[in-house]
Fold this sequence. Notes:
Blueprint (H helix, E strand, L loop, with lengths): L10 H14 L2 E4 L22 H5 L8 E9 L15 E10 L4 H13 L11 E6 L3 H9 L7 E4 L1 H4 E3 L4 E12 L16 E14 L7 E12 H8 L9 H14 L8 H22 L8 H19 L7 H12 L4 H5 L1 H31 L9 H9 L5 H10 L6 H19 L10 H8 L4 E2 L6 E12 L2 E3 L1 E2 L4 E6 L1 E2 L13 E4 L3 E10 L5 E10 L1 E2 L3 E6 L1 H25 L5 E6 L4 E6 L6 H16 L4 E7 H6 L13 E7 L8 E3 L14 E8 L4 E8 H22 L6 H24 L4 H8 L2 E2 L4 E8 L6 H12 L3 E9 L2 E8 L1 H5 L4 H8 L7 E3 L3 E6 L5 H12 L2
Parallel strand pairs: 1-2, 4-5, 10-15, 29-30
Antiparallel strand pairs: 2-3, 3-9, 4-7, 6-7, 7-8, 8-9, 11-12, 11-14, 11-20, 13-19, 14-18, 16-17, 16-20, 17-18, 21-22, 22-27, 23-24, 24-25, 26-27, 28-29, 30-31, 31-33, 32-33
Amino acid sequence: MSTTDYKTMTTAEIRADYLKFFEEKGCKLYPSSSLIPDDPSLLLANAGMNQFKEYYQGTKTMREIGATSCQKCLRTNDIDNIGDARHLSFFEMLGNFSFGGYTKADAIAWAYEFITSPEHLGLPKDRLYFTVFENDDEAIELWHSHGVDYDHISRLGEEDNFWAAGPTGPCGPCSEIYFDQGPEFEGEAPGDDGDRYLEFWNLVFTQYDRQEDGSMPDLPHRNIDTGMGLERIAAIMQHKGSNYEGDVMRSLIALGEKLSGVEYHASANDTDKSLRILADHSRAVTFMIGDGILPSNEGRGYVLRRLLRRAVYHGRLLGIQGAFLTTYAHEVTEVLGDQYEALVENQALIDGIISAEEERFGATLNAGETMLQAELEKLAEGAVLSGEVAFKLHDTYGFPIDLTREISEDAGHEVDMDAFEREMEAQRDRARQSANRDAWGAANNVWAAVSDHIAETEFCGYDSDVAEGCKVLALVVDGEEREVAHAGESVEVVLDKTSFYGEMGGQVGDTGSIASDSARLEVSDAKHHEGGVVAHVSEVVEGELHVGDAVTTTVDHGRRELIRRNHTATHLLDAALKRVLGDHVSQAGSLVSPNRLRFDFTHFEALTAEEVARIEGMVNAEIFAAEPIVTKVMGIDEAKAAGAVALFGEKYGDVVRVVSTGDSDEPFSRELCGGTHARNTAELGIFKIVSEGSVGSNARRIEAVTSVGAIEYVDERLAGLDEVASSLKCRPSEVLTRVEQLKEERADAEKKLKAALVGGSSSQVSDAVSAAVDMGAYKLVIARLDNIGGKELRGVWDTVRDKLGADCACVLASVADGKVGLLAAGTDSAVAAGFAAGNVIKEIAGHVGGRGGGRPNMAQAGGSDASGIDAALDAAKSLLNA
């Protein structure tokens, strides 16, 4: 069978041709959604259908007959298989979707047209095979109607060719398309475990609604969900036999060859696997950071950290020296940046995060190797390293098990892999319980039900604190919908429109009141729920409120004004941080409340005092410039073209609200934002940073105040300064001078005290010298001293030597602040007579929980167990025969 009997296409050509083909069929072209899904039931986007879930469920509709997209996806449930011919962690999924707009017959016809037409893929028809669900005669006849021979169509069972959202709910048969790679590959038939028949496109026909009794009535309308892995079809169209042989992945493997000096397919299989893992993981890491995922020890951040560290480890196995992953990130951006602009926009951040994590893990690898060596030293010759130790190194310290095995085997020890796998399986069980969530898993709470029958709440409070004629659409009491709420009850009220801003994007919810003709409610919070529904968390102060009532909403004006100012200050702070620290700075979280603001951002080291001062100064300069706050509603593309900053990892619709400081073409700050803001920067009054610190690896936090909060902060600090000045009996302007004077006086006093404790005038030192034992060739002092630190023992030795002359030695033990110090020292004549300070300390340090040694003339050790001092000194006497 010839491998050159059809044309060749690049990955970019296939992607563009596919999307254009289905767009011309009437499908709406959607850009890929973020790897961070807009769905709490999912950890990461793992399929093209994720962003269309609400259309499948019928809660949203579209005018077009369907949709098409190229979705970036990430799956790590089979991470141990990544690096073989098929498995990838990150991949691109081509898809076309219908929500009742076109039929199963259309989906099959278009798929066959695209893969066989010379204008598109033009694959040889005799090398195409199709599988269908075992009783799906309709699909068989549809494929046959386009010229597919019956002997190229197979029936497979439910495990292979039937898709279901869960035990109940939407489900339907699938049909998969296979390409025969030739007899040189193993495999007997489509659907087996071999690689000869390679599945590259799956068409799911969601047409039934499975009930608890097992019956499957038809859905109100049939849905189409197709997916074709771009890497897989690229390998086919480039006449290759593996996902890793296509142009995109092969360019990354070539980079690994260049960095390591290892040739792909020319050495051991493990080397090839490491090159493939590096190519896959580096691409995944680059996309994850580009989409707003930051390294952490849980959730998405843990997946990112694990992939990044696995890549670093395999780089080491290949012999790559020094930091190298940013080189891969640049190659990913070079190859795919035209299609995924977030890679280009966030390149500085991607570089910074990767560099910081790579450096940190390099230190972890070094520390882990040291710990492993310590564990191996404890083992008898040929003994097995416990699986529990290996798992602890892997799980707690991030030290890869493969490296543990390699080092252990080189030292003559096997690893108990059975015990290690038991620990790993227990960890996987815990992970599955918390993270193995299905894309169709519906939130089991009242708000999911409320959002099914109530549209998004309209916010009409940008310019007014009051909204009249609002209609009560739902009342929720104790987690259940009610028709009426009575006086004294706590209730969450849903309205068709409101002047209350629901907590979102870091801005806290408004407070205030709701009033109808028959009821009055105090609102303590406003929260966003599923589907954009805003719940007013309230207490019915008087009367009764019914679903359907008309009400007036009134926001607490003074509180909102403070929130407005702090929200505008957050935008100014973000802009200042980028100017001072660099473009890698991105918002990683925020809190906008009436009394303060908190801003988390990506950065890799603590800010200097000079940087903090510059940032604060920039913000205040904008406040003093009294710039008007200009808001405009525009299309997302127009907003980005105007330089509006999109928050890192946030998702936006086609129409957005843009907030700028001033109306110039290049304002100090311009961001996409739906929150409430000051009308002019001058309303902020003054901006003060009150703290700056770390909130995890690669993330910092600034807390700041404005307006009334800033005045309160400054007043409090001045009051504190006045109190200190009063205590020091000086003017506030003289406090620093007075403190420096007191520090000098204290240092002088401590110096005199130290001299008194260790010098000749010290009674305990004099008593120790008086009790010296005559050893013949030298005099020996063995003594315990209190309230003398270990560092001061050398001063005591100087005093002993001054008093006893050239022929003396000492063994001293001290305790101060709970810490034990030991010192042994001797003159040259004492050492010549047999005194060995290092040997003495080595023998006695264990009594105080310490270890030590040193030269014959002097040795020291520290310890933590003061109760062992007497035993240590007795041991010294026995050793020296004193």
